[in-house]
Amino acid sequence: MKTSLTSFRTWACACLLGALPLSASAATVINEAFTSSPAANFTVVSGGTWAVSSGRYVLSVPANGTIMGNLTRHNTSVSGDYTLTTTLRITGTSALWNDAAVVFNYVDASNYYFASFNEANDGLTNGIFKVQAGVQTELADFSALSTADTDYAIEVTRAGSSITVKRNGTTLGTASDATFAGGYVGYGSKNDGAQFDNLLVNTAGGDVTAPSAPSGLLGVAASSSQINLSWNASTDNVGVTGYNVYRGGSLLTSVTGTSHSDTGLTASTSYTYKVKARDAANNLSADSNSVTVNTLSSSGVPVEVSSFGPNGTHWPSVLATPFLYDNSVPNIVNVACSWSAISSAISTLTPAQVSAGVLIRVAPGDLPGNGSGSGSTPVLQNLGSTSWTKRVTIAPRDGYGTVTIGISGSIGARIHNVNNVCFAGFIAYSLRPSACNNSAIAWTKIVNWLGVSGSTNMASSNMEFVEVVLPEYSVRDTDSAQASSSTNGALSNFQFIGCYIAPRYRSNGSAHTDTFQFFGDSAYSNMTFKDTAIFASSNCAIQTGGLNGLELRHCYIAAQGPALSRYPFPSGYTPPNSLDVTKTFNGGGTNFKAYDSIFIGRMPYSTSPWTLVSNTVVTEAVALAPGGTGSWTVNASLTSTVPDDFGVTLPTDAYLNSIWQ
């Protein structure tokens, strides 16, 4: 796979195959991307096996030489001033003196320059050297060493007698020598294996400035056989003419715009992409960020990819749930944008229809709310059945965000005793599902508040909240999200998967704000968070109350510096207490388990609830419950990190549109 910083397509075959020197006024004289085998434009001078493999020029089974035991040169001669760029990787043994070299102004096997890169500095490598009449002379020494199995972007510039060598944009050495004014360029090694890629030689007098790298590359699985890519435009000193799209390290296509749809793919398969910008002189930019996207399964449900927060691959799974964009669902019902139309569509379903699959699609508009309090009049109630073998999915007909709930009036909605139903693809002001069982909320942004609860004499269980996002923080004396039991209305077996919840900062010292709080008048038990990111509010990130049974699987829970780096105190705000935003967890509880997670901040439990810990990092040591198994990894330096260090993406509207539409 190509993983270089700068990549270029082969162009103008006649130019590349010709052996005559090109004039100094030409812009690009060599442009090798090693996309085909053999390397027809190279002549092997000495050494082991030189061959194109996986899009790279590879030296294997290297010979041992006194100067350059392995050497190959390009067939195009270069004269005058020029800049050479390439990617170099040392692939030596476990010894600490492995080397690889870029050869330039090669006249013959006894006369040339080379820039050598080594893991050690032995006087015969790791510098700029001249070989004249078979005698090696060091022109400049490199104090910086290189590391095997690491890609380096190398640049060699000839300007008159001046020679400058850079690695990853940093100058390693300069020299002045005019012995060889022209010749060939190539690669070499004293006695170790190496890989090379993306050889570009630009002469003076042309455009040698590459465009900026494309940014913001995003990929979205549109179906089981199509992935849609988009990215931000690059800039160039002259002008960008197009973009090269790479899949799995190989050139896929060239386009003139900032998007591409890759079709004909295999269902439930992972594909990795990157993009490079191109200008009229065929200068190519550095790589964009890379993205890995899974095509949907044949049923349309995404293939889950682990993350901290939403990424458009998580979907409810406790009970079979039709995917919101699956047009092959046997029973598709289109309804107007009204609660009465939705209620009527659910109430008229038969068990046979539900078993076959039902997708209710709502026309664009705003569904008004009546409030999201525990006593608010429900917008939907007493619908569905826990005896159904599948969920019914309710989603916007025209895609995520085209139907809102309570946004126009900034008032939330309560959904009461609605069972085996999934609401997906909405934007809601506030939302409270109460006394619901086997239902789900998925791919939904909530602007203000989320509350899930039981009701008097009515329990709530087996709920799934999948990629539910509360990304906006504020100074407000309420929690961001709550789960509350009621009198004889217990909560049990909830799952929060791929969620993201921003904090609330209290306005005064007597207020109490948590990001997620468990509490209530009856039991609440067996709660699971997975692939979820939660940032601490004034009191803590998760207030566990008296929770019995908590599992966190691959979660990012942050307080202190990382939380404040993403959600800083507003201008003019002073926290009421110096301990505000320092706790990840608070409260009580029993039988807590943590797997593959990161917890940054304090956990001041008087009695530890942690019974099992596996592969989880914390910033301060925390005791386990008596008989608990496993151990924490303590790394206090995580308080100086930022969420981006761990791939915790800020779920902006643009990002949510890209993964959910």
Can you walk through the features of this model?
This protein has about 650 residues and is mainly beta. The chain has four domains: about 15-205, Jelly Rolls (Sandwich); about 215-295, Immunoglobulin-like, CATH 2.60.40.10; about 315-460, no CATH class; about 470-660, no CATH class. The protein contains five helices and 53 strands. It has a 28-stranded parallel β-sheet that branches. A hairpin with a 2-residue loop joins β19 (about 240-245) and β20 (about 250-255). The radius of gyration is 31 Å and the shape is elongated. About 50% of the residues are buried. The model is unreliable at about 1-25 (pLDDT under 50). Keywords: Signal. It comes from Nibricoccus aquaticus. This is Fibronectin type-III domain-containing protein.
Helix run count: 5
Q: Can you count the beta strands?
A: 53
Instruction: Characterize the main sheet.
Output: 28 strands, parallel
Any idea how many domains? Answer: 4
Which structural class best describes the helix and strand composition? mainly beta
The CATH topology name of the largest domain reads: Jelly Rolls
Radius of gyration: 31 Å
CATH class of the largest domain: Mainly Beta
Which strand-content bin applies to the residues?
35-45%
CATH H level, superfamily name of the largest domain: Exo-inulinase, domain 1
Global mean pLDDT: 91
Domain Fibronectin type-III: 213-298
Protein name: Fibronectin type-III domain-containing protein
Pfam families: fn3
Keywords: Signal
